[in-house]
Amino acid sequence: MVVSENTLKWAMRFYPPLLFQRVWVQKVEPGFTGITVTISNSLLNRNYNRSIFGGTLFAAADPFYPVLLHQLFSHKGYNVIAWLKSSTIQYLKPVRSKLWFSIKLSNSDVKAIEHDLKHIGKHVEHYPVEMYNDTGELCVTINNEVYLRNLDFVLQKEAVQ
Question: Which Pfam families does UniProt cross-reference here (predicted)?
Answer without folding.
Answer: DUF4442
